Amino acid sequence: MSTAAPHSLADVTTSDRTLRRFLHGLPGVDPVGLEARAASLGTRSIKTTAKAYAIDLAISMVDLTTLEGADTPGKVRALGAKAVHPDPTDRTTPPTAAVCVYPDMVAAAKEAVAGSNVKVASVATAFPAGRAPLAVKLADVREAVSAGADEIDMVIDRGAFLAGDYMKVHDEIIAVKEACGPARLKVIFETGELSTYDNIRRASWLGMLAGADFIKTSTGKVAVNATPANTLLMLEAVRDFRTQTGIQVGVKPAGGIRTTKDAIKFLVLVNETTGEDWLDNHWFRFGASSLLNDLLMQRQKLATGRYSGPDYVTVD
């Protein structure tokens, strides 16, 4: 689907005044109701057959991530090999959706996943703080894309957003989208720094209006990252955006999702909020590093009846 600004909302972004009026005119979020619904959906029980399906679906949605200052080409190549064959002893295990790395590690990641369907995603725009001039951010993006990145995960300028300079954030997203060329763009809000659910809803619509292919909760580098409540709110936003515009946008919760139980709760949120159209790694991802290991251990337990333990999988 096209990710151009929807015609029906084109006049919303013609000026700072109209954009502000639109974002502040969105319905207010009922925090108690939102959290209660997220908690209620998280209690849904999943039977054995459905659980096996959910585990494989979750594996296929993982953006296997390493974003550390100590990353080396060797570590990234090993991570890429794991993304392609998460369980070398069982080739029925699906590959992950992508490997996510810093721009200078894109070439090594691309080499590691060559010949597979695993994408290479790269964080950019002065990740994780986003505190850099626009020219530097765009150079960061172009460097990653030229090295072979299929997807770019950008961070918004939270300072500008919280100061109410929505047009600056909007225009930066548009500029980054243009610099991405054929690469898909995921826009990270850092929901833990946005303070309120109303701000998360506004950021979601702002990102979509500017052409985001995905909206993403977090960098994984702050205290509060993805939660069922903030992800539910973003799922509601993409559902409503498609209803109004016909344009589908993906969602990526990232940070703090570590167990199979957690992942299944999020898949229930997707199914109950947006429906089956989003139950695919083209439209939903998990930003995670340790989650994959637990999914693999639970998958092995379902297959053999035995819990293999952490020594069964590689330590990333």
What this model shows, in words?
- With 316 residues, the protein is an alpha/beta fold.
- It has a single domain (7-304), classed as Alpha-Beta Barrel (TIM Barrel).
- It has helices at residues 16-24, 31-41, 48-60, 73-84, 106-112, 134-146, 158-162, 166-180, 197-209, 228-245, 260-273, 291-304, and strands spanning 62-65, 98-101, 119-124, 151-155, 184-188, 214-216, 250-252, 286-288.
- Strands 7-6-5-4-3-2-1-8 form an 8-stranded parallel beta sheet.
- Strand 5 (184-188), helix 9 and strand 6 (214-216) form a beta-alpha-beta unit.
Give a brief rundown of this model.
By secondary structure, the protein is α/β, with parallel strands linked by helices. It has helices at residues 16-24, 31-41, 48-60, 73-84, 106-112, 134-146, 158-162, 166-180, 197-209, 228-245, 260-273, 291-304; strands at residues 62-65, 98-101, 119-124, 151-155, 184-188, 214-216, 250-252, 286-288.
